[in-house]
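so my prof wants the structure for this chain in the tokens format not the other one, which i didnt know existed until like an hour ago. anyway here's the sequence
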Amino acid sequence: MASVFKRKDKNGKRSQRWTIQYSDAHGKKRQRVGFTDKQESQRLANKMEEAAKLRRDGVIDLAAEVLAAQTKRPVSQHLSEFLDTIRSKGGTEKHVRLISARIEAAIKEAGIATPSEITRARIESAIGAIQKRNDLSPRTVNHYIQTIKEFVAWLVPHRLAANPLLDLELRNAEVDIRKKRRALTPDEVSRIVEAARSSSKDVQCYDGEQRARIYLLAYLTGLRKNEIASLTPESFQLDDETPTLTLEARDSKHRKKDVLPLHPQLVTLLRQWLPESAPEQPLFPKLSRRKGYVMIRKDLEAAGIPYTTKDGDADFHAVGRHTYITELLRNGTSLVVARELARHSDVTMTMRYTHIGLQDQAKAIENLPTDPKWLETGLPTEPMSQHICSTSQQICSKSGVSAGHSQSTEDTGCHSETAGSGDTNPCDVSPSGTRRQKKAPPVTDGAQVEAAGIEPASRDTSKSVSTCVVDDLNLASPDSRRQDSGSASRGLNFASNVPDMTRS
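here's what i got, hopefully its the right format
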């Protein structure tokens, strides 16, 4: 039973307001401040007690009430809890600040105060205004869309009943590419490394040899700049049966521990480099704070390689990661293995790093398995019907060859010259090379019908009928026809012409 009473302070003085005590839906005693009037406070207490009983009996949906209360909370409070969730999953403060800035910008532009006010129309309009005001590319706008959609999906179902942004589509990033990268060739990478080693100037606090080592690590491992910055001599296991590189989860972009195999030539170089550093000392101190594009631009210029071409820019990410993934696929690595080495969540992301040009496509076409027999000539140059009728394996007669058919006294070949208008037909041979008989001429009034499937012999000597039967259709060259007849049934051996694509 709900009750009301007045509390006393530490001096024994009674409070001006009455305190309400009641049992909630779970049977627990709850208290809250009522009114200064006792009767009003008692009525409120009875109302809350009755509501609690209805919740216990299932008349009032308790989950719906909780959801309604969450929906009315300020969206800023939900955002704060969402960011705490990202931190708990290992997100860096830089990543958290970036997400927070994008969501806050969209919410502020849309004028949203509570989750219940989130609609697709308001969010889409807000993002469009942000894009226009800041002249953002479609790819950058997609980052805003993906971030706000991730936040709203987190709100469902405990803070929002349904997701209003499920059908909010991303922009087409191909129509306006602001930052386009290209992959370099191994020769260009060698020229950059040599240009760096030959340089006597420090760039971004690194001498030429240090820059050359950074470029080689980026190209032969595909690591990002910040990931290379985290490497220490303890990151490498060079004495294992398969030398590997271990990247801790805190240093990896996808926050997972990665173990990557090392190139044999890189293993040899690392045995020379690692003794120069203390076991726990980074190989390249403060690399994460340096501007990689400034380093690579200077060494590209020294190597005589343009930074920007029609194919895109050759910044640090392009020289390392883009070239690494592209060369894996150029040298026969499957897309699935390339995805694993690149540590991407799906092959779609891996394909964005792949730069396969027309020359690569032409090379792939050249590697298709072939057979020398295909180069032999011998296909007929004259019309097909004349070639078929001139072979020795066929017998062409005017009136047929079956027993019981009358022979014509004049052989006119495959075409009947004395037949009526429209009756001239070539020898019928199916495209597969099998023989087939000519269709019987149409039956006229008073004509005698022959057995089905058999061309009738000519009853009227004034009209002739032509029949062409091909016993063996062979379109091969004359030389190949003289070979052993068993070779025709052996077929082509594709396996003998398939290049070995395995890599040691």
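also thought this was worth mentioning. DSSP finds 17 helices and ten strands in the chain.
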